[in-house]
Amino acid sequence: EGEGEEGKAGARRDRREIRQTDGPDVTYSELLAASLGLHAAINAHLDGANGKDHEGREIRIALFLPRGPVLLAAMLAVWRMGAVAIPISVNLPGDRVRELLRQSKPGLTITDTSHQEILLPAVTGLGLRCLLAGSAAPAAPELPAAPADPDRPAIILFTSGSTGEPKGVALSGRGLLNRLAWGGRFIPVTPEYSGCSKTDVAFGDFFCELFSPLLHGFPLTILPEERITHADALFDLLLEHPVTRLVAVPRLLLELAAIARHTGVQLCDLRHVPSRCEPLSCGRVDALPRAFPP
């Protein structure tokens, strides 16, 4: 039985479970290789061990990367060395990016060639070091992981700053894993289950969208930035790339329901739609089953 389970795990590692609508699909094995390569590159740029620099301060690494496999690999690499990940939205203007970097004081920033022009002025002005994700060697040797400490900060998320100055909130590894584990118990994963990533990294839901599939073992579709800003484009995407799970605020759910009512087309594949942050009146709830049939 053990050999059978190991064989299943091996086969799963080679399935293309991370799907991109505007790029190649990625296997878990490829994700691991990319993460190990970034881990080696980060270690070559930083002095310290076990998530601490030579003065004993926690190492923070800012990630200016779009949602997708590279961001996933970078976050895994940061955690492998025991450091704190600071994801920063690539949709922010340059002055806001600079302010978040000034507040968080990362020892290193990671970006890709598509976004370095936005990041480099802020990095240079603050005297920070920058690593291009593409410079990580995919065949880098596997370095040992730092000892796990689940109560240390694992990630810093910044509030939107819509009502004032953005504030960073540190979350522990234990808290993140507890959230993912709770989600798996609350909505059990079935063989046909599939999820998607559409939430910007400026909002906490992005974490669950990206990492629940990795923890619970179901396919993940990365929806492109340029096609999720309007409800009608998102509706079309969900028809083209069926998913069973969608995280959405009530306002977006009602917009999708209105599109379904207007077009006469239902999103029949959706089974679970976690929603929060805004009130949803009982009268409006009645419109949802017509768009998302049980």
Helix content: 40-55%
| Straight-line distance between termini | 36 Å
Average pLDDT metric: 84
Q: How are the strands of the biggest sheet laid out side by side? A: 3-2-4-5
- Number of E-state strands: 9
The chain-level structural class is alpha/beta
User: How would a crystallographer describe the biggest sheet?
Assistant: 4 strands, parallel
Task: Give structural notes.
By secondary structure, this protein is of the alpha/beta class. Helices cover 41% and strands 12% of the residues. Helix 3 links the parallel strand 2 and strand 3. Helix 4 packs across helix 5. The longest helix has 18 residues. The N terminus is likely disordered.
Pick out its properties:
4-stranded parallel beta sheet, single chain, 9 strands, globular, 294 residues, alpha/beta, 3-stranded parallel beta sheet
Give a short summary of the structure.
The chain has helices spanning 2-13, 28-45, 69-80, 94-104, 116-126, 173-186, 205-216, 231-240, 250-263, 282-285, 288-291, and strands spanning 18-20, 60-64, 84-87, 108-111, 130-132, 153-158, 168-172, 195-197, 220-222. The chain is of the alpha/beta class and 294 residues long. The radius of gyration is 20 Å and the shape is globular.
